[in-house]
Design a protein that fits this description.
One of its GO terms (cellular component) is cytoplasm. It catalyses: tRNA(Arg) + L-arginine + ATP = L-arginyl-tRNA(Arg) + AMP + diphosphate. It is built from 23 helices and 14 strands. It is of the alpha/beta class. Among the domains are: 21-115, Gyrase A, domain 2, CATH 3.30.1360; 195-279, no CATH class; 286-349 and 362-392, no CATH class; 449-596, Orthogonal Bundle (Isoleucyl-tRNA Synthetase, Domain 1), CATH 1.10.730.10. It has a 5-stranded parallel beta sheet with strand order 7-6-5-11-12, with helices on both faces. A 4-stranded antiparallel beta sheet has the order 1-2-4-3. α14 links the parallel β11 and β12. α1 (21-36) crosses α3. Bound molecules: arginine (ARG). Arginine is lined by residues 147, 150-152, 188, 190, 340, 343, 358, 360.
Length: 605
């Protein structure tokens, strides 16, 4: 019987990840391959963790090189009679190592590797001593920027922006853990555009005395947007004034600038409330910031011969796309693309960024594709997409409602983020109050716990899905305490914390003097899964896929609860010390995953 290795990473990123078991094994197999087929220096080791198949695993890892080597050597004069013989030779040529307990060759030459449980125990123990940062890989960039959240002022901050905020925050945290020295979390807010003409004109109509116009008087921006849109669409005279207002704003007329700034301030205060609740930090630099840079960048592109005339507009053609992208509109105005041409220029040249990641819905994929291609044509980004400086568009699917359509409220309004978060918190509060264990809790603890669980659940529901697929927003599902939800994970975490507390032992002391032993198969399974964090993280980070971390975290809780904790008594057993250390290592890794996912852990429930 043969097990198939799990999917391998598709990312082409050189990453230094010494704590990865997979990489350590690959180094050993590299040596063996060099000795086995010295004339085939191109053969690289293919090592991956084994998947469970039909409840059985034939090893912890597998080396999958024999077939490939065979296809290279078979016509040539060779001592090998077929792939199984090559597999066996690979095993025989392995240098001695403490890591490996045994290897066996199966089927057409797969090498199944069983790790030494002593080695696994030592590695987990080292992590407890050195801290989880010792498991951090190193990305080969010093300066990275994540452009995320980026709502539009005075337009609604919708669930799409929530997705961008949640995913972008996690990516920034992943970069930070990967020792990128400077990670900029950039909020590229849409604070410039024709909507302002309409809004300002409406406000001037309403407040004829400009002194009456204040942030408080502006009030609800969504209502303002709606009301002025009605005027704009129904009254041609209003529309004309609104269009003139755009020009007056752009030419810097004081009265218009002041109203613009007031609107932005009101909007910013709204956004900040959401960010604060989500615990997300962002540095705002809106579209308006780049306005002064647009003409210069366009001139440079023009000098390079990239700008062409088409139908009165100034356009750029890029590779593989028939229709050009408009850089300057027919009326001479700039658009979303012009701003991004300038902002990317600024990011590369002024901010000296090596990796720039844009987090938006997949609907904007073409926009970014054309932007990066235009830059490549200009020679401002390397031709090789994987070389640095590098730009990546991180797209995500839609958030759907129960009806399978775009997520809206019953009155088919855009769902407000604040309302969503309120609702999540309210529901968690109710279920906490129903619990006996929460009887003696202070109001503050109830509040804090409801927020941690409620907001965490919203984030996790989003992050656990491969970002490219749409997901259905469903409170009942995401707040369920069973299944793959943050609530379940929080319970699991709190339960392990309580096991440690109940032991009455000083865990720091246990860490200093205790020793991990993995004699039971479920202890071993838990230890091995803990050790796999660095390689899972690497795959999540290089492919920008946070769902891989969620999957790992969920499996960790399952292995802990269903295997280890069901079959291995902790408190009061003769293995108590070692098992407490496994509990501690589990919560450390869990909390770190929570941290990367932006979820506040709960210590008792
Ligand atoms: N404001 C845009 C929107 O809501 C997202 C901006 C993304 N960032 C960028 N540099 N274009 O769709």
């Amino acid at each position: 019987p043969v097990t198939k290795p799990q999917s391998t990473s598709t990312a082409v990123i050189e990453i230094d990840n010494p704590a990865s078991v997979k990489r350590q094994l690959a180094q050993l197999f590299e040596l063996s391959l060099r000795a086995t087929v010295p004339d085939e220096p191109d053969v690289v080791p293919l090592v991956d963790a084994c998947a469970v198949k039909g409840g059985v695993k034939f090893g912890d890892y597998q080396c999958n090189n024999a077939m490939g080597v065979w296809s290279k050597v078979k016509g040539k004069q060779t001592e090998f009679r077929g792939p199984p013989a090559i597999g066996q030779a690979i095993v025989n040529n392995l240098p001695p190592s403490e890591m490996i307990d045994s290897c066996s060759v199966a089927g057409p030459g797969f090498v199944n590797i069983v790790l030494s449980k002593k080695w696994i125990a030592q590695r987990v123990q080292r992590m407890l001593v050195d801290g989880i940062d010792a498991w951090a890989p190193r990305l080969p960039v010093k300066r990275a920027l994540v452009d995320f959240s980026s709502p539009n002022i005075a337009k609604e901050m919708h669930v799409g922006h929530l997705r961008s905020t949640i995913i972008g925050d996690t990516l920034a945290r992943m970069f930070e853990f990967s020792r990128v020295e400077c990670v900029i979390r950039r909020n590229h807010v849409g604070d410039w555009g024709t909507q302002f003409g309409m809004l300002i004109t409406y406000l001037f109509e309403k407040f004829t005395n400009p002194d009456d116009l204040s942030e408080a008087a502006i009030g609800d921006l969504q209502a303002l947007y709606k009301a002025s849109k009605v005027r704009f669409d129904s009254d041609p005279e209003f529309k004309l004034r609104a269009q003139q207002a755009v020009v007056r704003l752009q030419s810097g007329e004081i009265k218009y600038r002041k109203a613009w700034k007031q609107i932005c301030d009101v909007s910013r205060a709204e956004f900040d409330k959401v960010y604060q609740r989500l615990g997300v930090q962002l540095e705002e630099r809106g579209e308006s910031f780049y306005n002064p840079y647009i003409p210069g960048v366009l001139e440079k592109l023009d000098n390079l011969g990239l700008i062409e005339e088409s139908d009165g507009a100034r356009v750029i053609y890029v590779e593989g796309v028939n229709i050009p992208v408009i850089a300057v509109k027919r009326d001479g105005g700039y658009n979303y693309f012009s701003t991004d041409l300038a902002s990317l220029w600024y990011r590369l040249n002024e901010e000296k960024l090596e990796w720039i990641v844009y987090v938006t819905d997949i609907g904007q994929q073409q926009h970014f594709d054309m932007l990066f291609k235009a830059y490549r044509r200009a020679g401002w980004l390397p031709k090789d997409e994987n070389a640095y400086p590098k730009c990546t568009h991180v797209g995500f699917g839609l958030v759907l409602g129960e009806d399978g359509k775009r997520f809206r409220t019953r009155s088919s309004e855009v769902v407000r983020l604040v309302d969503l978060l309120d609702e999540a918190k309210r529901r968690c509060r109710t279920s906490i109050l129903e619990r006996d264990t929460a009887k003696d809790w202070s109001e503050e603890e109830i509040e804090k716990t409801s927020e941690a669980i409620g907001y965490g659940a919203v984030k996790y529901a989003d992050l656990k899905i491969n970002r490219l697929t749409n997901y259905t927003f469903n409170f009942d599902q995401m707040l369920n305490d069973k299944g793959n939800t943050a609530v379940y994970l929080q319970y699991a975490h709190a339960r392990i914390c309580s096991i440690i507390r109940k032991s009455g032992r000083d865990i720091e002391e246990v860490k200093r003097n205790g020793k991990i032993v993995l004699d039971h198969e479920d202890e071993r399974a838990l230890g091995l899964h803990l050790l796999q964090f660095p390689e899972v993280f690497e795959e999540a980070c290089t492919n920008l896929l946070p769902n891989l971390l969620c999957e790992y975290l969920y499996n960790l809780s399952e292995i802990f609860t269903k295997k280890f904790y069901s079959n291995c008594q902790v408190v009061g057993s003769s293995e108590e010390t070692s098992r407490l250390l496994l509990c501690e290592a589990t919560v450390i890794v869990m909390r770190h995953c929570f941290y990367l996912l932006g979820i506040e852990p709960v210590y008792r429930l």
